[in-house]
Amino acid sequence: MPVHLYASSGDRDVPIANAHHCQELLEARRAETRRVDFGEVDHGTSVTLSLPKMLEQFAALEG
User: Fold this and answer.
1) Which region, left, alpha or beta, applies to residue 47 given φ > 0 means left and ψ of -120 to 50 means alpha?
2) Which of 1, 6, 42, 62 is deepest in the core (most CB within 10 A)?
3) What's the superkingdom here (predicted)?
4) How many separate domains does the chain show?
């Protein structure tokens, strides 16, 4: 199962380094990962941008 990590380099609440670290750990265990950086947006905007993408991915699993 691929793991998608959504983050924002502009997020001052949750550093993007967390996503980088998580991706490294997962890939060390042979997980397929994809990291998406939404750029210079804040935490709330990052959540708003990532939620529809997550819902699409879960919907695709149902089909």
Assistant:
1) alpha
2) 6
3) Bacteria
4) 1
Tokens of 48: 């708003």
Confidence of residue 1 (pLDDT cuts 50, 70, 90): confident
18-41 per-position pLDDT tens digit: 999 999 999 999 999 999 999 999
Tell me which residue range forms the domain holding 53: 3-62
Paired tokens of 5: 């990590």
Residues with Cβ within 8 Å of 9's Cβ and at least 6 positions away in sequence, in order, are 16, 37, 38, 39, 40
Torsion-angle region of 36 (φ positive above 0: left; ψ -120 to 50: alpha; else: beta): beta
The DSSP call for residue 36 is: E
Q: Is 34 helix (H, G, I), strand (E, B) or coil?
A: strand
